[in-house]
Specification:
23% helix; alpha+beta; 137 residues; elongated; homotrimer
């Protein structure tokens, strides 16, 4: 069986944001066992799984990704929309934008410390669309 | 239901290449709803999803990945086949080589600006094999 | 059909380790066709697929990831548990911790040179839990 839902997130500031609750509330019932694919239909924001408790992890993520993929490198061509244009695409290639998480006992089977991050890499990315696909018995 | 197909891509030059059409033409019919796994059976080329329109994105990807994973670092050991040997393995670990994309209304449900990239990290990678697995009702 | 199993790996030293055999021995029988999700329920260790033969690839991975994500950057805040704290989270975001691999002919359909790596990014990460979910007919 395949269950599919599309959700639209609120607009987020540039940076990493916990969105686990947005995913959880999209489903009235999750199955006993299955696999959930979370697919962000964009090329300048990413998804990843990381620490769900201390907000300094997300602050360090922002600082680190800005250092790893610096703006204004001399060879960049795709900067038509500003210095956060190509860098957002590059950061997205590094984190990815499609997550697969098992479903168990009617829940997304995240580990104790795991949360789902939306990594908004644009200064004004606007509202992002996510397509959720749950595969089950 | 599981539908599985193997395709062999043409040999590509080092760099990022749009291969969405190669994936689309592998299937006569895609189901109404499902999940498609695209699995590259190699360790020195990657897959990612990014901008499908402007070719400068792919040019910037090539320049950036060469900067991020420089050739000829003094500590590299696995360079038996040349300076593009270990660097291709490392770049593959960063992008990944397994994509999961939802299927909806008989189509791969990519966003408007999303395309599938083969990132060929070797100078002469040759023809690459992809195993496609579609899970549906 | 969904088959789900949880395994606990032995504790590994910091570094990349081949764990393909741990995954293979978790299943008595794999189906003819399907998709296997391998989900590490942690935020400071990653999973990736790379070269299964020469151990120097894994040594170079360790050296490179330490260079890519240096310890002791001045802006890090989340270093309560030592210099390998935030860096382990960041490396995990780069490699990811959820793999999808096709199943074919009762086997995980890895390419000839592909193996599954556990990337232990902590100095003392301890035993790591993996949830395996196989989707089939």
């Amino acid at each position: 069986m395949v269950i599919q839902k599309e959700i639209t997130l609120p607009a987020f500031e540039r940076g990493c944001h916990l969105i686990t609750h947005h995913i959880n509330k999209a489903f009235d019932n999750l199955p006993d066992q299955g696999l959930l694919n979370i697919f962000l239909r964009h090329t300048s924001a990413g998804l990843c799984i990381n620490e769900n408790a201390d907000p300094t992890v997300r602050q360090d993520f922002n600082s680190f990704f800005d250092k790893l993929v610096p703006e204004n490198l001399s060879f960049y061509k795709h900067v038509y929309e500003g210095p956060d244009d190509i860098t957002a695409h590059l950061k997205t290639a590094i984190t990815g934008q499609s997550l697969n998480i098992p479903v168990r006992a009617q829940k997304i089977a995240l580990g104790t410390w795991q949360g789902i991050y939306l990594c908004e890499f644009r200064n004004n990315g606007g509202r992002r669309k996510i397509l959720l696909t749950c595969i089950t018995h």
